[in-house]
Amino acid sequence: MKNLRLKAARAEKDLSQQQLADIVGVSRQTISAIEKGNYTPTVNLCIAICQALDKTLNDLFWPE
């Protein structure tokens, strides 16, 4: 399932996939795969992404 909430939160912060990847210490391809729903990130990566985007785990990763 695509993670459109992550993509929207990243856009709100005016960050490219590469910029977010650099902040959280992964490749741009990893961020792309998460947004496309092709990769399930670890809890630690989820937390790092949430911190970078000022969002909660529920905001970005909890199923609706």
Automatic annotation (TrEMBL):
<dbReference type="Pfam" id="PF01381">
    <property type="entry name" value="HTH_3"/>
</dbReference>
<dbReference type="InterPro" id="IPR010982">
    <property type="entry name" value="Lambda_DNA-bd_dom_sf"/>
</dbReference>
<keyword id="KW-0238">DNA-binding</keyword>
<dbReference type="InterPro" id="IPR001387">
    <property type="entry name" value="Cro/C1-type_HTH"/>
</dbReference>
<protein>
    <submittedName>
        <fullName>Transcription regulator</fullName>
    </submittedName>
</protein>
<feature type="domain" description="HTH cro/C1-type">
    <location>
        <begin position="6"/>
        <end position="60"/>
    </location>
</feature>
